[in-house]
Design a protein that fits this description.
By secondary structure, the chain is mainly alpha-helical. It has helices at 4-19, 70-128, 147-164; strands spanning 23-26, 32-35, 48-50, 134-136, 142-144. The chain has a domain at 75-164. The chain is elongated. It starts with a helix and ends with a helix.
């Protein structure tokens, strides 16, 4: 039951908001007219003093007779041009930052590839030397590499060289 008073208050506020949608204009006799409906079509826009802010029937701003008609348009276009220049500047700056990040990532990848290439070449040279090599087995014991293990390691090193040593 405590919910009813707040709902009633909200409904009254909404109803009063629609009553505030008032039009105000000067008629052909020079009298101010107040209404909740728009003025007749024979009333020029320069005679409309007030119109509701809500709704779809919002007219363009009234320009005084002493002002040239192009002055507001020029001011609006200058403001829009300033915003466009600012937007373009920010966009160009963001693109430059993105390009710098991409270049840094590419440089990092190139460095890693060069290091992998050098390690693979050193491993291949070691395997090709013919010296006995040892590696750890599953239990962690060091055992000498047989010919099959040597060929597998040689194949792996060659694959790394083929992929990472291209310039």
């Amino acid at each position: 039951m405590k919910l009813h008073p707040p709902l009633l208050l909200a409904a009254l506020c909404l109803a009063s908001a629609s009553a505030m949608a008032q039009w105000q204009w000067i008629d052909k006799d020079g009298r101010k007219i107040f209404s909740d409906r728009p003025p007749p079509t024979d009333v020029p826009d320069s005679k409309v003093l007030k119109q509701p802010r809500m709704g779809a029937a919002v007219a363009a701003p009234v320009v005084a007779a002493s002002e040239p008609a192009s002055a507001p348009a020029a001011a609006a276009s200058a403001a829009a041009a300033g915003k466009d220049k600012e937007l373009e500047k920010r966009k160009a700056q963001a693109e430059a930052e993105e390009a710098a990040k991409k270049k840094a990532e590419d440089d990092k990848r190139a460095k890693v590839r060069a290091e992998n290439c050098e390690r693979a070449k050193a491993a291949k040279a070691t395997i090709d030397s013919g010296k006995p090599l040892r590696q750890a087995n599953a239990q962690g014991e060091l055992i000498f590499m047989d010919e099959a293990a040597r060929n597998a390691e040689l194949k792996r090193a060659q694959a790394i060289i083929d992929s990472d040593c291209k310039r």
